[in-house]
Amino acid sequence: MSxxxxxxxxxxxxxxxDILIVSYIIYKVLNMVRGTRAVQLLKGxxxxxxxxxxxxxxxxxTLRWLMNQVFTFGILxxxxxxxxxxxxxxxxxxxxxxxxxxxxxxxEISKLIGEVIKAVNYLAVRKIGALIVFERAxxxxxxxxxxxxxxxxVSSELLINIFIxxxxxxxxxxxxxxxxxAAAACYLPLxxxxxxxxxxxxxHRAAIGISEVADSVSVVVSEETGLISLAINGQIVRDIKExxxxxxxxxxxxxxxxxxxxxxxxxxxxxxxx
Length: 274
Description:
The chain is of the alpha+beta class.
């Protein structure tokens, strides 16, 4: 009580500002890792903390000793495990984005989708294969690192040139982060789903594979048929029409915080029934 009795108004304001800054930083950190695999790791750490607290409260000597050893060596493990998230946070801090907004507005999304649609239509008519992956809540940095970093603004001309055959970047996936091209010629995990049609090649299996391990959205252009496909949540809709593709991209990219899988399945079912 003596602390509050001797507290001056200047010290009160300073403490309030201090608490607000720390709270905001914690919020931004949680917002940065939300939807990524780091969330599951954080849950695991919380379980260990609860076990350690229980062993201390109940005076379980052996279990408490074991937990102490885990925490002693766990600090280094945390830096190793969270290396991608830590690096991304420092990159955002360096670009001034850590304290800025994280969602793109409707105008930017519409412009982005418009450039992508122009590019895939051009490629589809000429039967030039392409795979464009949109990152959402789950980070794809481990896959962008397998390709050639670009960090370029999006334009249909650039997208087309990337996928022109016999050019250095045409083989592999292009990954979009926000409204930028993060990297091209990226390697993605192939789906091992045995029920995938045998007609689908490596490009389509990669589109499905990345959507199985992340909440990404993939647009594929077949070099055999020129058909455009959309892959979400481990499933693929083939020969999607331009209006449906634009609508789905707007829906999926406008907000990464909503659960969209049920809406996607309902839309897909209506399309198949029609």
